[in-house]
Write the structure tokens for this entry.
Amino acid sequence: MSARFTTRQVGDVTVIDAVGRITLGEGSSLLRDTVRNLIAAGNKKLLLNLSEVSYIDSSGVGELVYSYTTVTGQQGQFKLLGLTKRVHDLLQITKLYTVFEVHDDETQAVRSFS
Amino acid sequence: MIGTTDSLLASNLESVDSAEALVVDAAAALGLDEDARMDLGLAIREAMVNAVAHGNQYSPDKQVRLILERRADAVKVTIIDQGEGFDLNRVPDPTQGENLMRESGRGLLLMQAFVDEFSVKRTASGGAEVVLVKYAS
């Protein structure tokens, strides 16, 4: 199953609900386009919900890094929500777990944005 | 089910998907559990992307050879491209310093993390040969 990204607004935070696999090709480019469009529209508080993402490859990890650097470069905030064990392990292996702010609970995650 | 499959694949992303599916199916037939199959699938995916994109640079004139060995206790996969090969010791560590925030360069790290045995060498004709082994238990 390839990836699908839908966005919704919770207060001034934009939640991106991701579903499927974020891998080289359609999945990773869709995430890039989604983040780019949100930033262009002035949304700078982004919460990426990965709870329905079964699988990310190194290209998908690269897109998480792109999203983080792009949003923070625009003085925005980019955070992650609901990591599956597989995605959690992937971020540990790549040592990116300490780079991203990761939340398990959406309400708390939304509140954490300043 | 024990045996070897030797395939030549085009240098495109469809080959990455088909190689992953072929190996994961073989792993399932040998009784690898779901986590082990996903680990192996990810490692194959990374190796195939390396071969297709970095080795063969998506050239329609170059192919990737995939040798799948189904053993009693393991799956062994050899992936050979027609690129220029690379020296593993010269690949930057993606977990260190400024490399940490690069958008690429993590494929080899993930291959090594998700299989039980990993090796890479330059073939006599110059391409890269990556060997990945995953045991059933």
